[in-house]
Amino acid sequence: MIKVGIPRALLYYQQYPLWRTFFEELGAETVTSPKTTRSILAIGASQVVAETCLPTKIFCGHCAALGSGVDFIFIPSVKSVEPQVYNCSKFVGLPDLVRQTGKEIAPVVDIEVNVNLGLRKVREEVHRVGRRFTRLPWKIDHALDRAFNVDQEYQALMRTGLTPPEAVERLFPDQPYQPSAVRLTGARFASPRPLTVALIGHPYNIYDEFVNHNMVGRLRAMDLRLVTPEMISLEGLNEGITALVGKPYFTYEREVVGAGGYYLAGDADGVISVVAFGCGPDSLMIDLVTRAGHRQYRKPFMNITIDEHTAEAGMVTRLEAFVDMLHRRQARQSKDGDNSACLSRN
Question: pTM for this structure?
Answer without folding.
Answer: 0.89
